[in-house]
Amino acid sequence: MLDGNKALQYVRFRSDAAVDLGRIERQHKFLQAVGSKLLKVNIIFKAPTVIFKMAKFVRTNVPAALFVDVANRVKEAYQLGHLDIATIPSAPVDINGVAYLQPDWQRTQTLVQRVIRGYEFYTPSLPSIKKPPELFIEVLNGSGATGMGRNMERKLKTLGYQVWNTKDAGRFDYGETIIINWQGEALEDEAHILARKLYINPANILTRRPQQNTRLSFSIIVGHDWPIER
Q1: Between 192 and 43, where is the model more confident?
Q2: Of 19, 105, 193, 215, which is the most buried if we count CB atoms within 10 A?
Q3: Which residues contact 129 (CB under 8 A, 6 or more apart)?
């Protein structure tokens, strides 16, 4: 257990073999530990009060209410496993007797695209897409957990999509949430955009041959990775 002073010493220490890179790694560990602590139920309920009290001692033009909104978004991302902590790719250099970390800009751009956009490669601008109301989506609960289908339905409606039907899937052993594209290449871009909005791995998009006898655009099978709080 570290108090404030010991924690500060831990994250600032750089006198080991790894020097600055070692300090960055310790800072990552510290932030992850703080994140886990803040997500405990008794802390979450106190978060708005704590933030408003902290705002009195911080000089900023950001409204305290916005801090609360950002905190809620960070909590959601952390619970989903979508909060990435990354180190800018760099190499130690000596400039006039002073040690620096020199960024590798090409690798940094790749890292930014992976962390921010969720892809291992840069995706070009997408063409004009259908508006969400023009897409019809079916939700299937493949996790077996009560309420997961409705939970996904509410999220989709919040994003502006029409949910055609919500019911149980044929089985309840889906480990990951998947998107089935029933209209083939015609909705390929829309499928990837939907995956981004729902933080679903693009690899979990299954594309089928176009179905002429249905207006159904996508089926979303909710897996065990879909959280209760969303």
Answers
A1: 192
A2: 193
A3: 189, 190, 193
- Residues 6 or more apart in contact with residue 184 via CB below 8 angstroms: 207, 208, 209, 210
Residues whose CB falls within 8 Å of the CB of residue 104, separated by 6 or more in sequence, listed in order: 89, 90, 91
Asked if the model's pLDDT at residue 186 lies above 80, the reply is yes
**Nearest of 26, 1, 2 to residue 16 by alpha carbon:** 26
**SS3 state at 161:** coil
Query: 22: closest CA among 83, 116, 111, 99?
Result: 99
Retrieve residue 98's tokens: 């002073």
- Please answer whether residues 64 and 70 qualify as being in contact, where contact means their C-beta atoms are separated by less than 8 angstroms: no
| Residue among 68, 63, 82, 71 at smallest CA distance from 34 | 71
pLDDT in tens, 99-143: 888 888 888 877 776 666 554 444 444 445 556 668 889 999 999
Whether the predicted model's global pTM rises above the 0.70 cut: no
Buried b (16+ CB within 10 A) or exposed e, 81-91: eebeeeeeebe
What pLDDT is attached to residue 80?
Answer: 57
Q: Average pLDDT of the chain?
A: 78
Q: What domains can you pick out in the chain, each with its CATH number?
A: 4-117 (no CATH), 132-222 (3.30.70)
